[in-house]
Amino acid sequence: MQMLTTLPEMDRLTQFANSLADATDVMAMTFFRKPLDIEAKADDSPVTQADRAIEEEMRRQITEAFPSHGILGEEQEATRLEASSLWVIDPIDGTKSFLSGMPTFGTLIACLTEGRPDLGVISIPPTAERWVGQRGKPTLLNGTPCQTSAKTQLADAILYTTSPDSFDAAGLAQFETLSKRAALRRFGGDCYGYGLLASGHVDLLLEMSLQPYDYMALVPVIEGAGGVITDWEGRPLTLKSEGKIIAAASAPLHAEALTALRRNDTIGKP
């Protein structure tokens, strides 16, 4: 009797992550630019019924498909953190953009194996753009391979950060240092900026105060497109990282930016 072939496990996880993103895209757009109940969390960041409803659905689908897997999300308590496979999810990355009608928010989905981010999805519902990174394979934008820019020097780079409000005084000074050396700087974007980096439109991103659900999905996407993403010390990102993130289009650009950060690791001058 002929045996049926099955998808390799990582391909199965990727297929599931895409179907999960399909569902969350629809949900997000039913709430977008509609009246919302906005509450302040313990850290004063906003949360809406959309964030909570979408994460609840994501958790339901993950648990149904992979009951032994753990889940770490933004809005609910983590479950089975000791599991070898862990989903790290953010139902709406960019809640401030979402509730103010800006179409730059997205859903982030990562699957970690023994703490390593092997799969990452950045899905942007308003623009119908989705970046999927799978370790060892090229990053795909809506099914087509994409690549970071060829920029290798800070002087030629477009530098982005979501908001200067996320930096402390020392971090803001470091961002200002990079800004002065970069070709130009822009603000906003949330996770969308990392998709733009993967597609070659943005060259460098610097952020701090991020949580694992903000950055884990970004790692396979950026690396699979040819970029580099680490903490501000150049170390690989893990669940225990401090939340200071630097992502660059190329290794030389990443190295130059890290050097600038290290030379100005207090309220420094260029």
UniProtKB/TrEMBL annotation:
Name any cofactors this protein relies on.
Answer: Mg(2+)
Q: Provide the GO biological process annotations.
A: L-histidine biosynthetic process
Q: Which NCBIfam families match?
A: his_9_HisN
Q: Which residues bind Mg(2+) 1?
A: E74, I92, D214
Under SUPFAM superfamilies, the record lists: Carbohydrate phosphatase
Q: Which Pfam families does its entry note?
A: Inositol_P
Q: What is its EC number?
A: 3.1.3.15
MF terms per GO, please? histidinol-phosphatase activity; inositol monophosphate phosphatase activity; metal ion binding
Which reaction equations make up its catalytic activity? Answer: L-histidinol phosphate + H2O = L-histidinol + phosphate; a myo-inositol phosphate + H2O = myo-inositol + phosphate
Q: Which keywords does the record carry?
A: Amino-acid biosynthesis, Histidine biosynthesis, Hydrolase, Magnesium, Metal-binding
State the pathway, as annotated in the record: Amino-acid biosynthesis; L-histidine biosynthesis; L-histidine from 5-phospho-alpha-D-ribose 1-diphosphate: step 8/9
Name assigned to this protein: Histidinol-phosphatase
Into which EC class is this enzyme placed? hydrolase
Under the heading PROSITE patterns, the entry gives: IMP_1
Where is Mg(2+) 2 bound in this sequence?
D90, D93
- Species the sequence originates in: Pelagimonas varians
